[in-house]
């Protein structure tokens, strides 16, 4: 079937993300979204199992968010955040400070998750410079971690991650080690900190789930022990909650499960419920105070053009309204229970290595995926939008997904594995 004219005209000029353009399947032309559905130009409707890269936590086109954007568009779609402030951004910063744990109270807005992590890295290194401490210019991060695609963030991702391996010779060198999960690995981490802690500005980790690195889970005790080690050796602790924040793991923020407060936290993805681009880097008071000085060079010299965009901040405020007034965390608990039950059917199937669920994240890990294009096409043929990567088929649905929609997603995964589409 011939596609719409805009598709035929535009495809020769577009460059798609994470895509080998020579071998990619033709992308599907989306024309409308509603609830958990993606409507295609040819009339097909796909149930979205990944909420547009984990962002659309309230489903698509929620009327409360739509109305907030419309109202803000009529007042002021954008104004620079240099020398000016505005109500949506200041209200959002106040609300974030109120719901974040501890004294995470200073919010620096950016427009993407990668940049939020870049800012966190910059803050951590400059924190020590401003305090007159030299040499602390490296990060300690973990294999299996993923923190973005910009140059500085690639350097703190898993160095064996296929997306970034080509750049290993040009990236800044940081300490990338195994995420400690037992006594031996914690002892190894402590040895590293005792020997090289004077080079390390901060420890960086995705709390509870390492997302794009493989949907790898760890328990809250890991976070508590990282906090202890950071305090013992005098380094900052950064939690990247871009994926895990806003209810995805079962609590509003993943770190709440460990009762641990990082020194710096990054947020994005579900911050605006998948409606606008916005991110935030939030710090505790002692980090912010290190930047207060009569010396202008001690300021944080960073400022994206669309920083704190009023439309995006209005989206985020409307999303927080929904978390306050609608039962999102209860919905996450229901999703978790349903995925735990229904994905269990995959455990004994050929090629399945593991099945795991945490909050509204369900994972079927395979031994291998022989033909990714074939697998993706098989899922689409079953009427679902699921994007496997590496050896992972995963679900991160909207929290508003209906039980029958979720069953359609889980059964599709089981069916493509039974049919051998993943083999």
From TrEMBL:
Q: What is the similarity comment for this entry?
A: Belongs to the class-III pyridoxal-phosphate-dependent aminotransferase family. BioA subfamily.
Q: Which reaction does it catalyse?
A: (8S)-8-amino-7-oxononanoate + S-adenosyl-L-methionine = S-adenosyl-4-methylsulfanyl-2-oxobutanoate + (7R,8S)-7,8-diammoniononanoate
**Molecular function GO labels:** adenosylmethionine-8-amino-7-oxononanoate transaminase activity; pyridoxal phosphate binding
Q: Name one GO biological process term.
A: biotin biosynthetic process
Which sites bind pyridoxal 5'-phosphate?
Answer: 113-114, 240, 304-305
* Keywords recorded for this protein, A-Z: Aminotransferase, Biotin biosynthesis, Cytoplasm, Pyridoxal phosphate, S-adenosyl-L-methionine, Transferase
This molecule's function is given as:
Catalyzes the transfer of the alpha-amino group from S-adenosyl-L-methionine (SAM) to 7-keto-8-aminopelargonic acid (KAPA) to form 7,8-diaminopelargonic acid (DAPA). It is the only aminotransferase known to utilize SAM as an amino donor.
- Keyword match Translocase: no
The residues annotated as site (Participates in the substrate recognition with KAPA and in a stacking interaction with the adenine ring of SAM) are: 18
Q: Report the main location listed first in the record.
A: cytoplasm
- Cofactors: pyridoxal 5'-phosphate
Positions of modified residues (N6-(pyridoxal phosphate)lysine): 269
* E.C. code: 2.6.1.62
- What pathway is it annotated to? Cofactor biosynthesis; biotin biosynthesis; 7,8-diaminononanoate from 8-amino-7-oxononanoate (SAM route): step 1/1
Q: Which PANTHER family match?
A: ADENOSYLMETHIONINE-8-AMINO-7-OXONONANOATE AMINOTRANSFERASE (PTHR42684)
Annotated binding of substrate, by residue: 53, 146, 269, 303, 387
Q: Which InterPro entries match?
A: Aminotrans_3, Aminotrans_3_PPA_site, BioA, PyrdxlP-dep_Trfase, PyrdxlP-dep_Trfase_major, PyrdxlP-dep_Trfase_small
- The name of this protein is Adenosylmethionine-8-amino-7-oxononanoate aminotransferase
Q: Which domain of life is it from?
A: Bacteria
The family database entries (CDD domains) matched by this protein are listed as: OAT_like
Subunit text: Homodimer.
> A Pfam family name for this chain?
Aminotran_3
Q: Does the keyword GTP-binding apply?
A: no
Which is one Gene Ontology cellular component term of this protein?
cytoplasm
The record's section on PROSITE patterns has: AA_TRANSFER_CLASS_3
Q: Where in the cell is it found?
A: Cytoplasm
């Amino acid at each position: 079937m011939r596609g719409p004219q805009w598709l035929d005209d535009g495809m020769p000029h577009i460059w798609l993300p994470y895509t080998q353009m020579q071998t990619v399947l033709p992308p599907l032309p989306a024309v409308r979204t509603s609830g958990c559905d993606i409507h295609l130009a040819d009339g097909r409707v796909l149930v979205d199992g990944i909420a547009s890269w984990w962002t659309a936590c309230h489903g698509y086109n929620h009327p409360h968010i739509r109305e907030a954007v419309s109202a803000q568009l009529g007042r002021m779609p954008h104004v620079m955040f240099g020398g000016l402030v505005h109500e949506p951004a200041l209200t959002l910063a106040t609300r974030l400070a109120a719901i974040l744990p501890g004294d995470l109270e200073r919010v620096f807005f950016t427009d993407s998750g990668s940049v939020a992590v870049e800012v966190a890295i910059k803050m951590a290194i400059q924190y020590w410079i401003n305090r007159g401490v030299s040499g602390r210019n490296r990060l300690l991060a973990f294999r299996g971690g993923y923190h973005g695609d910009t140059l500085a963030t690639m350097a703190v991702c898993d160095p064996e991650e296929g997306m970034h391996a080509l750049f290993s010779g040009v990236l800044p060198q940081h300490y990338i080690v195994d995420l400690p999960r037992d006594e031996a690995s914690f002892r190894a981490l402590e040895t590293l900190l005792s020997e090289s802690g004077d080079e390390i500005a901060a420890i960086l980790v995705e709390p509870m789930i390492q997302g794009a690195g493989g949907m790898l889970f760890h328990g809250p005790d890991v976070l508590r022990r990282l906090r202890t080690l950071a305090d013992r050796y005098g380094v900052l602790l950064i939690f990247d909650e871009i994926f895990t924040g806003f209810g995805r793991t079962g609590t509003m923020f993943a770190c709440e499960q460990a009762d641990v407060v990082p020194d710096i936290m990054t947020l994005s993805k579900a911050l605006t419920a998948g409606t606008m681009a916005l991110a935030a880097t939030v710090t505790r008071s002692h980090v912010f105070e290190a930047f207060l000085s009569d010396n202008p060079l001690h300021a944080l010299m960073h400022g994206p053009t669309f920083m704190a965009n009023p439309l995006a901040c209005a989206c985020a405020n409307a999303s927080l309204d929904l978390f306050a007034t609608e039962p999102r965390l209860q919905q996450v608990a229901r999703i978790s229970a349903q995925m735990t039950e229904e994905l269990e059917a995959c455990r004994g199937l050929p090629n399945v290595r593991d099945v795991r669920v945490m909050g509204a994240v369900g994972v079927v890990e395979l031994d291998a995926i022989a033909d990714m294009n074939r697998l993706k096409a098989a899922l689409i043929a079953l009427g679902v939008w699921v994007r496997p990567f590496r050896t992972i088929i995963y679900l991160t649905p909207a929290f508003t997904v209906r039980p029958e929609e979720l069953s359609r997603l889980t059964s599709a995964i089981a069916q493509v594995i039974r049919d051998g589409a993943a083999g």
